[in-house]
Specification:
Chain lengths: 352, 352
DNA sequence: CATTCCCCTGACAACGTTGTCCAGGGCCTA
DNA sequence: TAGGCCCTGGACAACGTTGTCAGGGGAATG
């Protein structure tokens, strides 16, 4: 049946892309089914006033029988807000970041927003890639745990209105909100604790010097030593990857030689864990204080400088939403206190 | 200059919503700046062929000077695919789910997709809310760690083309892919291990009976006991919340009375942690085997049935992407083996 | 009974992108 | 030199939703 009634294929007639969402029903379909207008469906879906109970019921029925679900992509496109925020962190599998992420999620949820998080794996390039991908998705705000030390790439985004807060480490080369733990003060207190228990030769084993917290903690260590008038031997300090093999080597190294250290300050949770393992196989008792608390550390008697990961996340998220709510003061830096938790390993005296 | 040339405000003239994205530049702006057509910009942005190097350079310059970033919402709307998958889990802060989520993320990344994950907090309603919110964002696929036991609410979504895989626990009342650990076999092996070391009175402390893995592990416990011809006293079995206080009470209860148990099987990582804490303060040595491995368990000498959380996540994600790539076989159930890791606590003999 | 007002509903454009098609110009071939 | 082809670039519609506005009908009021 060659019909001349069918429109003769419009001039620049697009056909649309292929896959579609398995042909999901749209508001238009719902409207047709319910015998109402498109906008009425929109009103029902969004709970807007001005719809007769009877009409609403018909629309609801159509929605259910078709299995309709609003397409948020279209909604976002139209409204300009995604009600979602992004979180770029280092590694979700790290027991430090899990609680932090969860805390952010809870705050987001309280504000009706969804959290999208991604792991940078401590790779600056991947951090940037992720952060920009989140911006392309038009997250309303961004929380970043920096892996890199240059965040100018975020400037256009921030100028375009993406609220941004940095956590755990400050941003590089830009001015922005940042929430962090007092790494310097915590490390200083931890090392002072060891000194107070009689130690004079204390090692510091930490993360790569590229990482701000690692540097700050080292600075705290140096300050505490200096406060006590102690001179640091370069061989006591090891900065680098926190991979178990390297840390193991570093611990063994500071314990070797004619004048081994009598105490170790571990720069973060991963270093602490490996250090504990090595020390467990060591014949001499060595004091240890670690930065970051660890599960079961109480049973193992590990003295730590505890920081509150959840509080970091919560504080950052609250700051972010304050900005999203229109508060527009100067970028500020918030430092959260750390707590020294003595459990035994930090109170071991040096061998007499 | 009152100009009559300006269109006299179109009849039903919409003004558009207010906030917008802080007035971000669009492809149209870039095109105007570069003096090219809209589609040419699109071509450059997407690396499509058919653009002169010179034109491309001009467009790139315009993009950079304007700080343009493609709006993925619009792209998604047009293309029908979001290149993102959703993961609904119980709690990101739980050290079991962190690695699982991370493994899923890596697989997604390898497929060029973004992962959006949310915590259900073990609340069925919240699980549904989250899963449906992800569907509204039109994730291409969904990985769910069930909190509830009825997932029929996902049927319309699956029919509409959302690939769905369940992990760690099977879905309720629908047929779908599922990847889980062998809870039954693992628990049975763990309890058999205790029996082999001479125990006859063994307690089981687990999660709520609403949760599939809890039931399976209990079943494994019963099977092992039956295999050995041992009769279980009801007072040895405690199922309920894994909140520390409750577990603490349960442990104390099975250790009290004239005929206390001599060994405990802990149903998951949280139970194990609390049990270890309680046993550390107990005067009698009590054997313990826990389901799930725990960080530092090696140092504490805790015998566990280890399951590989990362492998669970990886397997599920791979299955998901196979479906997204068009493979369309029957829903299947995959069970991953567990491993008994003897470390001391499970080898403690009963008091003679 | 006429008029006013309000409530409910629907038509329409626009959000920013991509797929399709067409136009124009340059180059090669006959 | 003319014809045809290929390559580049642009116009346009459409994805599914929401904001704006106008129209119709019923109730309330004069």
């Amino acid at each position: 049946m060659a019909d001349s009634t069918r429109p003769p294929t419009p001039p620049g007639g697009p056909r649309g892309p292929e896959p579609r969402y398995g042909n999901r029903p749209t508001m238009k379909d719902v409207a047709a089914r319910a015998g109402v207008g498109l906008k009425t469906v929109s009103r029902v879906v969004n709970g807007e006033p001005g719809v007769t109970p009877d009409t609403e019921r018909r629309v609801q029925e159509a929605i259910e029988s078709l299995g309709f679900r609003r397409n948020d992509s279209a909604r976002v496109l139209r409204k300009g807000r995604t009600a979602s925020i992004g979180l770029v962190l280092e590694d979700l599998a790290d027991p430090f970041y899990g609680p932090l992420s969860r805390a952010v999620e809870e705050v987001a949820r309280a504000h009706g927003a969804l959290l999208i998080n991604g792991s940078s794996a401590e790779d600056p390039e991947r951090e940037q890639e992720l952060a920009l991908a989140l911006c392309a998705r038009r997250v309303d705000g961004l929380i970043v745990i920096p892996a890199g030390d240059d965040h100018r790439y975020l400037e256009p985004e921030m100028k375009a209105g993406v609220a941004t807060v940095f956590v755990d480490r400050p941003p590089g080369r830009i001015d922005a909100d940042v929430v962090l733990s007092d790494s310097f003060g915590g490390a200083r207190a931890g090392v002072a604790h060891l000194i107070a228990h009689g130690h004079r030769r204390i090692a510091f084993i930490g993360d790569q010097p590229r990482i701000h917290t690692a540097v700050e903690r080292l600075r705290g260590y140096r300050a505490a030593m200096e406060d006590a008038g102690l001179v640091i031997d370069d061989s006591w300090v090891a900065l680098g990857s926190t991979a178990p093999e390297r840390v193991q080597e570093a611990v063994k190294s500071v314990l070797a030689g004619p004048e081994p250290v009598t105490a170790i300050f571990a720069g973060n949770n991963r270093v602490t864990v490996t250090a504990v393992r090595v020390l467990a196989g060591h014949d001499q008792r060595v004091a240890l204080v670690g930065f970051d608390d660890i599960e079961l550390a109480d049973l193992l008697g590990i003295t730590v400088i505890a920081q509150d990961a959840a509080a970091l996340g919560r504080t950052a998220a609250e700051r972010l939403f304050r900005r999203l709510d229109g508060v527009n003061d100067e970028p500020a830096q918030v430092a959260l206190e750390t707590v020294l938790v003595p459990r035994g390993s930090g109170e071991i005296p040096p061998p007499s």
